[in-house]
């Protein structure tokens, strides 16, 4: 196996980061260990649980199914960046007020996935919310509170989608 | 979500009380911003990573291990086999003396001569990165001699079966038999007897954060520091100290954020002990994060019971007796230190729990087998006992032609019958089955739902309604573990301190895994002292900082930790008022603390702010009388001694639609009414219930560790092992009845397991209600489409 490192440059949360990475390294491991961004989590490493969800060039991806080298030249947004910019502050506030998180391990991925839905569909039905979040596993909440928080955020936005920063 | 007013608890019914208020958790925002700190987020200088070679066989002898090639693999620092590990760690045996006759075999961190389940750790590779450690694993050459695996629990319990641990004589780890009220005679004389065999499939916790541990050992100080994703830091401190030969004070367990636990993270795991031992061998930090594939075959599994159940009734629907015969497979070892006998013991204790029958017969056999170990997982025993009891009650209702709600109404223990001693000898302090039933039927609009069901049935759409009453063990006394010799604390302590600027710091032994422990401690502390909640900081999860305690399990966080906080807070308040009385030349009894200020108790007029009292006490004590020593830091402990457990109760309902062509079950609605006594934070309690319900639904419909006859788990990944996801789950409606326990001043009972306890029984009864026109029924969880089609004769 050729594990010779490859140099990549990724714009992570607005910062240009250049590193030499092994071709086999996944984006989630690159973000967590090379960039020290530990907000996105490793849950299953086979693309089922959604804990590693981040945004690459505006699209949500599984950080465990995406190689770091694939992100060369891309813009990557993580929960840290989205928190700093305030882009999803209302959604985060709704999650906290509604207790739509317990252990918090799924929450960064859940928020990014929910934000993706609200950007496309500012007034989703409960069924639409459940369908969109159905790739993000939460063992704690039973999902009801998460659906409430996403629904409330959409309503509070008045049906007007916010621009997605890419 | 309704905000309820503070209940009429005299000491807590104070101005600005936080008891009964749905305030947000202070630690939630941090988690929502990705600023949690789980074990895998911790990095230390000279950090190493361990990966384990695991047995590919359920039962096999290790003839030899050759690590030479693996040792040369890039980044490898050290390879350790079971034989080497055995020299530095003493083995453990998972038995409790109050589970009479219980036995198990010594267990080591790494298999020494023999692997007893597929996934058992055999050899450890420490490397600079986890990837490099994993790269070396295939280079280890193990010469295996396959042994015959013992997998079926019933067969393993049969005389003549191959014995997994020959020195134990047979495969029976524990057996309990009980007969109360001449059950055989009652059954023989009964008008109606109904029976069913229930299978409760093996499933597992699937915490989203896998088991995680980072151990560091400072050889110069002989000091071990363990960052651990655990529910019970002090218990683990004791275990590491004992089995690695260190004084307890030289072991510090730090538990930062925990990504879900549910009972998975309250046990002794061989690979975790091995990680700690490796850190001691190397004198540098070693991290082990289980990956998902190894989680499935090494995290404790749960349930795996086959229960033959019977119920006896009079023809007018009076329940006379229950009887069960339970066999459960627990893997090759009883898990240390809580043992794998507790669940079957709980099943025996809890069967028939909500009802007023007098006769009961039970047998439970706990059996070794070559599968992953089985142990306590959320709602230990409850979902099994509830499904069996409530399944039998519904079968009886059908046989009698009686409405299931009516049959329950006739048999639930009356709300004024307490204290009540149940046939197994357990004492219920005060329960509210009838109020809960009434509230549930109202909440779900039972009558209308029955009419709707009938309308749909006319159109060939099969909908069903299932009810499930339950009782729940909470606030355990030392009778749970301590009396059996386990060093597991039933007591917890809270140290509360007024800081100079008028803020409050609480350190407490109960732990947080997302339930909201820190929030309820802050709510109780703020109420007891009289400060805004924003001024309270709560510290949990560090054996070097918090008072010694049990941690969070068995629904004890709010009930035990909350009461310790209340008593500590009240004492601090009294101490503050004593000083204030001197400073203000007033009788302390005429003063109060409200909203962070000393006020005149009668008028509420502000006298001095707490920060002024803090300033004087800490920096100008010279201005206070010589004989007045302010004590602004107080520790109080609490242990529940009135009952073995403080029982709660509740009832759930499920409304489903069964597609009789595909066998798919659609969950249309779920309701739960429960009574956890004083509700400290209604929103947090509701979310405990909802999360628990969905965990129970997972067990009822999806989750199953599927094994073949060779002891190989066939679906050990998240693509094949199904968990509940948002798309399939219903909205869950929750309401409460409040019957505070008199065993504490706070009056709070636990709520963490009620949801999981009742949901599988409710879902099963709903499915069977839907299938009733076809004279078909299911009793083997999980109720997959295949199981349902088989019941319908279509598969």
Can you describe this structure?
The complex is a heterodimer of chains A (166) and B (795). By secondary structure, chain A is of the alpha+beta class. Chain A has two domains: 6-82, Beta-grasp domain (Ubiquitin-like (UB roll)); 88-156, DNA polymerase, domain 1, CATH 1.10.150.120. Chain A has helices spanning 27-34, 79-85, 89-97, 107-120, 126-132, 144-156, and strands at residues 6-12, 15-21, 53-56, 59-62, 75-77. A five-stranded mixed β-sheet of chain A has the order 2-1-5-3-4, sandwiched between helices. In chain A, β3 (53-56) and β4 (59-62) form a beta hairpin. In chain A, α3 crosses α6 (144-156). Chain B is globular and about 85 Å long. Mean pLDDT of chain B is 96; it is low at 1-9. Chain B is of the alpha+beta class. In chain B, the strands form seven sheets. A seven-stranded mixed β-sheet of chain B has the order 3-5-1-12-9-10-11. The relative contact order of chain B is 0.13. Chain B has three domains: 28-36 and 491-638, Aldehyde Oxidoreductase, domain 4; 39-147 and 210-258 and 265-298, Alpha-Beta Complex (Aldehyde Oxidoreductase, domain 3); 301-478 and 642-791, Aldehyde Oxidoreductase, domain 4 (2-Layer Sandwich), CATH 3.30.365. The chains are: A alpha+beta (166), B alpha+beta (795).
